[in-house]
Every structure is written in C-alpha cells, then in structure tokens.
Amino acid sequence: MAPDSNNKAPYYGRILNGDFSPELKARLKKVIPVFHVFDQAGSPAIPYISAWQGNKKNIWYEFVSRKFLTLLDCGPANIADILRSAIVDRRIYKSSVADPLEATEITSRRELDSHRELLREKSEKQGLIEAVYKLKLSTDETTWLKDQATILTYPEDDTSLSFGCLTIVTTEMEVEEERQRLLSEKSRLENQLQKTHYFEAIGNLAEGIAQDLNQKILGIEKNIAATIESLGSDYHGDTSAFQDYRNLKTAQQQIKDIKHISNQLLLFAGKGDYNYYETDLNEITAYTLREFRLIMPAVELMIQYQDNLWNVNSDRAMIGRALLNICRHAAQLVPDTRELEVASRNITLSPQFVEPYRRNPGDYVLVRIANRNAILNENDVGQSLEPFNTPDKGLSMASAFGIVKKHSGIMTVSSDDKKGSVFSVYLPAINL
C-alpha cells in the first residue's frame, strides 16, 4: 500500500499486504488511522507502530510519523536501521509493569544487542516497556527521545506489535545529566577533602615519629662512634675486638638506612630545608628521565613537552626526586612495563578543582606521567600515595606527595580502562 492523500494514513509496512491473520490485519486497520489523525493534529508527541517476528532481530515499521522521518532525516524503508545507528552508547530501559522501579542501564551497543532478546521477552509478557534513547542526528546534534510503548503479541502470526509514542526529552535529560555531574563532582570533592585530611593526619604523625627517631639516632650514632674510637686501630690480633669492630660498622650502616627512612618520612610530612629557584620544569623533567633511563633502560618513554612552558619556583633536586619516584612507581605497577607517557603543559585550574586541596586557583604547570597498561581499582587508587603501600613497599610515592605539597602544588592519581593509570603533578606558575 503506497502513500495516499493527506486524509489517509500513508502505509509502508508488510502486514496489510502479506499473509497474516485477519485478526492482526484488523487491529492495524483500526489503529493506523487513529495514529495518523494524532500525527496530523500537530502534537509534539511522535507516534509509531513497529513490528517484528519471533526471535528475528530485524524490526520494521507499520506506521511512521512524519515528525519521526523529519527528525531522523530518512525515508520510511530504512528508518529502523537509521534509528539503530543513531543511538549512542547510553540507553536506559525500564520495564514498568511488573516492577516500576526495575531499571537496566546499558552502556554499549554490544550490551544492547545481548539484552535485546531479554527485553523483548519481558515486554511481550508485561505488555509495556519504557526506554530513553540518546541519539546523534545527521546534523551532529544530540537529542533524547523517551519511548513509551504497549506490546501486543499474535502467536498465530509469530508477530509482535509495538504501539508507541516518542517524546523529545532533551531538556529534561540534559538537566538530569547536569544534576548527576554535580552529584559526582560533589562526591569527588568530599572524597578528596577526606583524603586531604587523612594525609595531613598521617603527615603530622610521620613528622613526630621522624623527629623522635632522629633524636634517638643521634645519641646512638655518638655512642657507636665513641666505641669505635676507643677500640683504636690495633685490634687485628684480638679476634673478639675485631668482631666488635665489624658489628659496630654494620650498626653504623644500619643507622644510615634508618636515617634515610626518617628523612623520607619528613619529606612526606612536607618538612625539611628547600632551596627555591625559578625553574623550567621541562629541564628538570628531561634530566630526571635521563636518570630514569639508567635505572630502567627497558622502558620506552613517550615524551611530549609543551613549548613556552611557564616557570615555577622549585627546589630542583627535590622536584627531580619526586618525578623520578613517580616514574619508577608507574613503571612498577605492571611487570615488564615497556612504555611510559610523560607530558608537560600549561594549565589554568578552577576554584572547584583546587578547593579540596586547599590551593589557590589560577595558572599551574602540569607534568603528567601515564602507564596505559596499568589499571588500578578504586581502592588501589585511593591508597597509592600512602606510605609503604607501593610495589616496593617503601616511601617513594609518599615522599613525592610531600615534596609536591611543600611546593604548594597538587598531586593526583587516576585510573581507567582508556587512559590507564595517570599521575599528575601541578605546580603553581610564576606570575609573569
């Protein structure tokens, strides 16, 4: 049946022209004119009638609203394919008869296909299905459609009909997306603020421990040195004295190791003497990476420096140590890591971004170190800067955090399946 005059509903389907039951055909003949009048009335709603047979995935349309064709900029014959290709990755389905609260979010086209048969089965049993689609139109514009449909099944024909109505809900969904974004941002800020307080508490504890430890070490060092001196140099014939001498020298080395740990604790706490100079972070990063290549020569470095990088005030040795620790940590996240990405750039941080870190908004210089093959879970990301919680079970990342903090900077860690694990160091730029 071809399109007729404006007084009659245009028909592009299969059922009325095919070998289907009288009951099914009668149902369509009754409903199509009603949907046509509804469409002609100028309502913002978009009516349609779709159909499918058995478990076949191909859907066709028995009635297509003019507004539907205009929206998708296509003809009735290929509207099902155009609609499928226009749906972007986020779709929300809700079966609203059996359980009004039941909702399934499908985040990929592959997942949609895997759930299609289940959705059809449920809709055929329940009689009603609701869906919200996010579409990318031929104009590259994005729109949201809410789909509410009643499903009728005709076993004799092995055919199901969907009598539906589409409504453009772009404004509502954009508001909802913004609400969700704000909630997510609020949660992120609260979590970051909690982490900041946590690190401050640990830092204060680390500082107290390190100071007490250094005082004890100082006394032990003096006693060992005095004992070694009392032995003199003429002990080679005395086996007992010689053994005492060796034990004391071993103790001296162990004291040095303890002092190193104590100093690392102080770095984590943001303490110690720093010498600040106007610095080009590209130069410090380049020097640090040369040192890193000597330590881990098997790791290839993908480097991208921004030209005309803003200068920062920094202790070059300390920042270099922090960047080296981060590079080593990032490479050790995955055994046999073959590649790290290192990049620098100028960036302006918003008040919302810096608020949980208690820093001033404005211009910063970012050094970003990424291992695309390392995916951390949320718990590992949260613990990655904690003392003794790194692959080397040491203080390397904790001290890097403390060094960046001492420079009034920000250090963050993130991880996902697209970018891998990313370590970002932000240092305040010098106002020119």
Task: Provide a compact summary of the structure.
The protein has 432 residues and is an alpha+beta fold.
Mean pLDDT: 77
Low-confidence stretches: 1-5, 95-116, 387-391
| Topology-level CATH name of the largest domain | Heat Shock Protein 90
Helix content: 40-55%
Number of domains: 3
Order of helices and strands: HEEHHEEHEEEHHEHEEHEHEHHEE
Biggest pleated-sheet summary:
7 strands, antiparallel
Please list the strands of the largest sheet in the order they lie side by side. 2-1-7-6-5-3-4
CATH superfamily caption of the largest domain: Histidine kinase-like ATPase, C-terminal domain
Q: Under the CATH scheme, which class of the largest domain?
A: Alpha Beta
Using only C-alpha atoms, the radius of gyration works out to 34 Å
Strand-residue proportion? 15-25%
Number of strands: 14
In the CATH hierarchy, what is the architecture of the largest domain at level 2? 2-Layer Sandwich
So what's the oligomer here? Answer: single chain
Shape call: elongated
Structural class: alpha+beta
Cα(first) to Cα(last) distance is 75 Å
Count of helix runs: 11
What does this structure look like?
- Helix content is 46%, strand content 24%.
- It has a 7-stranded antiparallel sheet with strand order 2-1-7-6-5-3-4, sandwiched between helices. Strands 9-11-12-14-13 form a 5-stranded mixed sheet.
- It is of the alpha+beta class and 432 residues long.
- The chain folds into 3 domains: 15-168, 2-Layer Sandwich (Beta-Lactamase), CATH 3.30.450.20; 173-272; 273-432, Heat Shock Protein 90, CATH 3.30.565.
- Helix 5 runs antiparallel to helix 6 (239-268), helix 6 crosses helix 11 and helix 7 (281-295) crosses helix 8 (316-332).
